[in-house]
Every structure is written in structure tokens, then in C-alpha cells.
Amino acid sequence: xxxxxxxxxxxxxxxxxxxxxxxxxxxxxxxxxxxxxxxxxxxxxxxxxxxxxxxxxxxxxxxxxxxxxxxxxxxxxxxxxxxxxxxxxxxxxxxxxxxxxxxxxxxxxxxxxxxxxxxxxxxxxxxxxxxxxxxxxxxxxxxxxxxxxxxxxxxxxxxxxxxxxxxxxxxxxxxxxxxxxxxxxxxxxxxxxxxxxxxxxxxxxxxxxxxxxxxxxxxxxxxxxxxxxxxxxxxxxxxxxxxxxxxxxxxxxxxxxxxxxxxxxxxxxxxxxxxxxxxxxxxxxxxxxxxxxxxxxxxxxxxxxxxxxxxxxxxxxxxxxxxxxxxxxxxxxxxxxx
Length: 338
Known about the structure:
Radius of gyration: 20 Å
Helix content: 25-40%
Strand content: 15-25%
CATH architecture: Alpha-Beta Barrel
Distance between the termini: 20 Å
CATH superfamily: NADP-dependent oxidoreductase domain
Largest sheet: 8 strands, parallel, barrel
């Protein structure tokens, strides 16, 4: 780690304006949700001051985009990001009926099954068709940012980065004024590094990275350092470790092992000692790197939105980071506010 540029750090509580509403839960991620409840979640975020929203065609085969569009369609001054890399197709019109690309069984319907499905497509035509479909689902809500979504295999990397492929198309769409920002949205820091290093500085305006920077996992340090050097703004997702830091049992979308649970419990004890909640400490930690511009919080219900907003009012003392290092909860080399 010593060969990497040191992260510039800060110590201030995130404000509501620093939060982005993550759109996966309102599409039924793991748990079915009624349309009325999903709309209430978005309305609550808007009422409480959220100005930034992140969604994707994958989330419920477009349901998340529809709900966000329905609430935001008559509002202005908001930042909406969605993703490309999947096109919604009729089940009767799949490229190969023996292979279902891009489908994610994690999204559960509240009601009858739908007859469309997300299909992976990292071609130029796929990017533009995905954008067209998203714009229609969101009823004309301006899309500020498009993120290349989940292109995290060697095959998908080659597909997306070929001449005239997804990345070149996103850059061209920015030149055409169709979008303001070109972005990446992925879970794997190593692939995000590959994309950024392959292209000239200025290609990517921002990235969204999930699960690589939180109290339990700082594997995204090299990525954040590179983003800092290239002035790429970072949106962090997965800062609560798939719910583990809210008291759940999952980390990175699978059951946490014993060592992760024990580390979580030690963090909880330290947070309590300083008069904080564990989620409050997790939010404060995520906002330490100066390159982090937004924190993406996935909320399924009105109460989830309210709970995340309440975390912005927590006072996390600066001393907690040094004590965490002395306990072995953070690496000794990690820059922290002092």
C-alpha cells in the first residue's frame, strides 16, 4: 500500500445532500414490495431532501426506473443515474431461448410474473436501446449519468471496451449532449481499475463501487486512490455490508462468516462506547475519503429512508478512528482524520 498515493481524508458528517437513493430495493430486491409502498419510499426521499437517485434496468426488469420516473417526472434540479449493459426483452423474443442472460432471481414480484426479462448487451446498439427504454420508463425524467453495469468478466470487459463498443458509445453520447456524465457501476474494484487504466484521463466522470469500502472491507483503497489522482468522483454503495452493519447476517450478498460477525460485534462495542450507533459509524467512515462524493443507500420502505437520514445527525468523534486502529479493526497504514 505504501506505493499508492495517500488518500486525502476529511472528518465531517454527511448531509442529506450527500446521499443517493439506491433503487434496487424498491424493485423487490430479496423481498416483494407493493407498487404503492415503493412509490411512497421515493416520495419520502424527495420530501426529506434527496436530490440524487440511482437505478438500473436490471432492478425488477425496469420496475425501479418506472417508480422513480413516476415520482420525479415533474421535478427539476435532480440528479438521476441509471445504467446500461442490459436491454429489457420480451420472454418471447429472447436472442437464444436456451440461455437467459442478465436475469437476476434476487428480485421478487409482488403479484403475477412479468413477461419481460433483462438481457445482457454491451454493444453500441444495446447501450442506445437501453437508454431509449430507460428514458421511456422514466417518462422523460432527465438522465444525467449512465453507468456501465456489472461488466465484470473478461468476456464482458472485451465486449464493452472494443472499438465502437459500450464505452466509446457512452463517450459519444456525452458529446451529443444526451447525458452529462459517463460512469461505471460495479462490485469488483479490480475490474473498475482495469477500465479506468485502459482509457485516457477524463473518460469517466464518476464511478459507483459497491462493497469495497466499509468498516469490514477496505479492498477498494487502490481504486479510490486512482480516482483521487484522476479526479473521478466516487459514489459508494454497500457501506453497510449488505445489511451486516445494520444487524443482519449477510455480507456481499451471502451469509457472513464467523470472523466477519466477530469484527462487526467489536465495531458495535466501539460505537456504543463513543455513544454512536454502528450504522452511524459506518456512514461516517464511508465519507472519510475526500474523493467520495455520494453515499448510495438502498431503501425499500419509508422507514428505511427516515433511518438513513437520521444517521446524518449522529456525531461520530474523530478519536474513534485511531482507537479502531489500535484494536486492529482498521489497517495500520490507512489514512484517517486526526
